[in-house]
Each structure stands twice: as C-alpha cells, then as structure tokens.
Amino acid sequence: MLQALGLGPAEEVIYTALLACPTASPQDLARQTGLKEAESVRILVDLAARGLVAVVTETGSGASGSADDEAGPQTSRYRLTPPSVALAPLLVEQRNALHQAETAFSILSEQYRSTAAQTAGGVVEVVVGVEQVAHRFHQLQSGAQRELLVFLVGPPIAVPREDTDTSESSALDRGVDFRIVAAKDYLDGHDIVRDVRAAVMAGLELRLVDSLPLKMVVSDRERAMVPLDMADSGGEPSAVVVHRSGLLTALVHLFEKEWAQARPMYTATGEREESAADQPTEGELEVLTRLLAGISDRRTASQLGLSIRTVERRIRRLMDLAGVDSRLQLGWHAARAGWL
C-alpha cells in the first residue's frame, strides 16, 4: 500500500504496526511483526530520519527527541508522526514524478511519430519469437488506458490463456472498456467458459460470431497486434504491431463491423439459480444464447460441463415457456420477450 510512496515492504510492516499502538520500542515491534530486532531498530532510525516517526525516550516525560539521544535507539520508544503531515510531501513528490514521466512520454511519442511515421517501419513492426510476441502483447494490454478491442479465435500460441486472463483482470480493474468478439468454437471447454463467466461478471463485454478472419488486439485505438502466419517465420510465432495509420483505422473499422453483427453472449452470474414459473433460469438462458449463436447441443453441453440430455431438457422447457413448437420460433419469442 505504501510502496508507491517509497516505503519498502519491511518499512511498511513496521509503519502499519505503529498504527495500532501509541508508542512502541524496537523490541515490541520485532515481536509484533516477526522481524529481527536489529532490523526493527534500523528501520525505525531510518523512518525517524525521514520524519515519518518521532522518538520518545524512556527517560523523558514524553517529549520528542532524536535517535541520537542518550538513551539510544534500542532503548527508545517510537510513535508515528501524523500521516497527514508526514506522508503528504511524499505524495506530492510522487505526483510530480508521475507528471514529469507523463510529459516525457508525450514528448517521446510525438518525436517518434514525427520522425518515423512516414516510413513503413514507423507504421508496422514485425515481432518474432514466443517471448517477444508475449512481451508485446502484455505491453499493449497493460498500457491501455481507455479501451481494448479483441478478436479471439483458435487456441493460444504465444501467450498462455492463464496469462491472458491475468492481463484482462488488470485492465478491468483499471476501468478499461474491454470488448471481445470471439469465434463460437473458442468457448469449447468448460474451463474456458468458467473463466469467461468470471471476466463478464467483472465488466468484460463478449459477443459471438461464427468465424473471424484473424486474431487481434487493439489498444486505445493507438496500436494493434495481429499474428502472422507461422510459416513465414520458420515455425516461430510472430506478429505485426500496427501503429496509428490508415491500416490501424481499417482494423478498428473491421472490429466495429464484426461487433455490430455479433450476438451478445449471456453468462450466468450465479445470483439467480431459479426463476418464476413463467421465466427462464440463468442456466436456461446460457443454453439459449448458444442456441441462437448456432452452437450445437453437443458443443453447448461440452462448454457448460452438462450432459446433452440436460441441454435438450432446458431447450424443451424454454419452448414450453414460449409456447412454441420449433427452435426458430423460440428465438423470435426470446427476442420479443426480452429474455436476452
């Protein structure tokens, strides 16, 4: 919590331990935190020198002294300087440093665009190798501040799915608008559906299409990454990174076109296991969205970890609720009734 203000992990442990007591000695804090006494003394002396704690000697009547008082740091007791006073300068310092970094970032980005944008190398980079492709992918996702647009198709090659999940979670935590269009076969497998369900509950928007022409990630409409054919790089995964240009605009347009035509994906939240007698349950709605996406009953069963009989039973109940005799009529009724 305080590392952003320049305190190390051990310093933060000592600092937060002092929050719970008016004053404490190095011995008290060592016992409370599990740190060695010598380390506790060293940290307290350093915090006192930085004005984050004040020293109250055993021999005094509560007046503040310094770590060089006659009692010495090991026999002194320490108390926190009010955080609103002591931490405020650190916060200002960090804000100034961040502002300077943002200014430098803007200047360097503009210089790069002005000197390289007119060349092919300034618009498109080729990245070759598993490590390089994965590194650039994480750069695009972790650097996004406003929006991420993603096409998902086929199994992951350079970036393991668990790493992708971590990047998604980080972006959603930052409040990034995250939209995904996935080919319907991407959801094959119960584990993938489980991870997607968690991401949708966290704010990710997901839609399905029958197929997609390529994999892609677009970050803030400033840059995009598209995989290359592995045959072009001797079998190694490779990708192109596209910077602001007409090509990038075309990729964004392609995403928006697919997004507009894709079918929204309903994902159960677990908040409503049952429903009124005349309304579908969340489990039935999950089946319904896959039915409308053209996913077969057998594949739906595999994705949701159900038996095919359960899938068929849920579809039959949906048809009964809608009062229809065919799946085509069921889709029409679901749209009219606002089930999805």
Q: Which key phrases capture this entry?
A:
11 strands, alpha+beta, eight-stranded mixed β-sheet, three-stranded antiparallel β-sheet, extended, 340 residues
The secondary-structure class comes to: alpha+beta
Radius of gyration: 29 Å
- Terminal Cα separation, in Å? 41 Å
- Spans of 5+ residues with little confidence (pLDDT < 50)? 59-69, 270-275
Q: Strand-and-helix sequence, N→C?
A: HHHEEEHHHEHEHEHEEEEHEHHHH
Structure annotation, total helices: 14
The mean pLDDT is 79
Query: What is the number of beta strands?
Result: 11
Write the layout of secondary structure elements.
Elements: H1 9-18, H2 26-33, H3 37-49, E1 53-57, E2 64-65, E3 76-80, H4 83-86, H5 88-116, H6 120-123, E4 124-128, H7 130-143, E5 147-152, H8 161-173, E6 177-183, H9 190-201, E7 205-209, E8 216-219, E9 223-227, E10 238-243, H10 246-261, E11 263-264, H11 282-292, H12 297-304, H13 308-322, H14 327-337
Parallel strand pairs: 5-6, 6-7
Antiparallel strand pairs: 1-2, 1-3, 4-10, 5-8, 7-11, 8-9, 9-10
Helix pairs in contact: 1-2, 1-3, 2-3, 11-13, 12-13, 13-14
Written overview of the protein:
The chain is built from 14 helices and 11 strands. The protein is an alpha+beta fold and 340 residues long. The strands form 2 sheets. An 8-stranded mixed β-sheet has the order 4-10-9-8-5-6-7-11, with helices on both faces. The chain has a 3-stranded antiparallel β-sheet with strand order 2-1-3, with helices on one face. Helix 1 packs across helix 3, helix 2 crosses helix 3 and helix 12 packs across helix 13. The longest helix has 29 residues. The chain starts with 8 loop residues before the first helix and ends with a helix.
